[in-house]
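Why do we care about 3D structure at all? Because function follows from shape, and shape follows, mostly, from sequence. That is the central idea of this module. The next example makes it concrete: a single protein chain, its amino acid sequence, and then its structure expressed as tokens.
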Amino acid sequence: MSENMAAYIDHTLLKPEATREDVVKLCREALEHSFYSVCINPSYLPEAVRELDGSPVKICVVVGFPLGANTTAVKAFETAEAVRGGADEIDMVIHVGGLKSGDKDYVLKDIAAVVEAARGKTVKVIIESGLLSEDEKIQACRLAKEAGAHMVKNSTGFGPGGATVADVRLMRETVGPDMGVKASAGVRTVEAALEMIEAGASRIGTSSGLNIITRDSSRPE
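And the structure:
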């Protein structure tokens, strides 16, 4: 099961104090253990490209991170630059305040601009569920789907709370079977990861990937 579990994991390092050496280490761990991707801040994209060139490990970078309050033009530029630099996936943060203000048109266009700038690369929309009511979570997921995004993700890891089974299940029910759902923040054990997958997650964002797959590989078949 450990190989299957590794294929769900975005091996993540987004701490502001992360160094280039830390990112190189992250990439080498992802290669060794066959994680689906690494998820990093965009300034470290060159290091990731050098380490992962020619490998099956994807490179994911964050956009509008962690607040989502950048202008749409800035998010689109950041996305286009990341794609030019070699990013395979984009994790963008919605304009949370815009959503809570009821400005659905702004939020929709904000996401759509990133999708367009990504030029077909996978776009995951971070809704920051810990700041939203249930109705707002549903609305955010619907807007992400309408804008052409490929996945929804519950949290940046910098907001309140983390992944919950209830949120993952709600996101899956809202977007349906053909769109991805990423559970992120607080998923530190194989038991927690399995709960998220059973609730409908198709990807797990975590900085505890090594702990998860090590524990998983020690479980009896």
